Amino acid sequence: MKELGARQNAEHGRFPPISKESTEKMCAYLNQLTKPRGSLGMLEEIAIRMAGITGKLNPTLTNKMVVVMCGDHGVVEEGVSAYPQEVTGWMMRNFASGGAAINVLARQMGAEVLVIDMGTKAEKIPGSVLNRKVRAGTSNLAREAAMSRDEAWLALRHGEEVIEDLQKRGIHLLAVGEMGIGNTTAATAITSVLIGLPVNQCTGFGTGLTEGQRQVKVRVIEQALRHNRPDPKDPIDILAKVGGFEIAGMVGVMIGAAKAGLPIVLDGVISSAAALLAVRMEARVQDFLFASHLSVEPAHALILQDLSLEPMLDAKLRLGEGSGAVLAFPLFDAAVAIVSEMSTFADMEKKEEGEW
């Protein structure tokens, strides 16, 4: 009964349609601008997709938000990270004080940062951090399920509720990031199950592991998959068995944002693994996803290929926090500015009598 109630809550609402009319109008208008067709590449693709999502040729993008989900992972005790478990809590406090990379980048881009504790081990949570803690860290996925199905549904629902609150604040563009020592292990496990590729092919160096440490990580993930046997056809089963509370929260955020008609800018491999789960749960989520950058983690390229998303940037990032997603925000502003301010050939014909 508990799972049924959580499922019903998570599935309420409908996804808004993508406006074919606005998409076609934007394509036609871009071809009238004073440039060769398609020459602005990704900017044109952003403009076209944003027109379809918003139903507007000149959407407003003044209110930008970065949601940073935080959670701890029991699997850290297996030696899969170069950093201790306590760093998650330290970084959460750093976010709250405005001193982390995501804070600096968000200030540069005029975006707000919302930090949410979905399941860290931190006993004291800064006042500016939203407390949605399901539990103080997941269980060790190498030896048991990371969480129960009820906990997975609860975390997902918490993510959707965040969007319900943000809608009241009039957010126009959403980036999704995370913080959680050990979460590349969970994201890699999710990727391996959903895409059906060997763990070794999906596993990178995370927080700066050596090759020997990477091999330990591979073995730990393989052990987790053998022990838990997550069902590739059941996203909640995968999430519960080898996921994380912050990953579940991001899944909920993405489903909620898509239902709200919000464009969603993905960050690196962790948020993209959450996106893959969200799309497997609700296929329409894919219509609202944008890939900000290509991480150096091998699983990231595999996920983006599966989602048919092309990254906007390749800056060799592997930080997380939403850092790459925020770096892509100016491209959205530029796409809107091109449509709003650039002349068409018809405009030039009216203005110019001679050569131009």
Unreliable runs, pLDDT <50, ≥5 residues? none
Structural class: alpha/beta
- CATH class category label of the largest domain: Alpha Beta
Shape: globular
- Mean pLDDT, to the nearest integer, reads 94
Q: Whole-number radius of gyration?
A: 21 Å
User: What is the CATH homology-level superfamily of the largest domain?
Assistant: Nicotinate-nucleotide-dimethylbenzimidazole phosphoribosyltransferase (CobT), large domain
Plain-language structure description:
- This protein has 356 residues and is of the alpha/beta class.
- It has 2 domains: 2-58 and 338-351, Nicotinate-nucleotide-dimethylbenzimidazole phosphoribosyltransferase (CobT), small domain (5,6-Dimethylbenzimidazole Phosphoribosyltransferase, Chain: A, domain 1, Orthogonal Bundle), CATH 1.10.1610; 64-330, Rossmann fold (3-Layer(aba) Sandwich).
- The protein has 16 helices and 6 strands.
- A 6-stranded parallel beta sheet has the order 3-2-1-4-5-6, with helices on both faces.
- α1 (2-11) packs parallel to α6, α6 packs across α11 and α7 runs antiparallel to α10.
Gist of the model:
This protein is an alpha/beta fold and 356 residues long. It has 16 helices and 6 strands. It folds into 2 domains: 2-58 and 338-351, 5,6-Dimethylbenzimidazole Phosphoribosyltransferase, Chain: A, domain 1 (Orthogonal Bundle); 64-330, Nicotinate-nucleotide-dimethylbenzimidazole phosphoribosyltransferase (CobT), large domain (Rossmann fold, 3-Layer(aba) Sandwich), CATH 3.40.50.
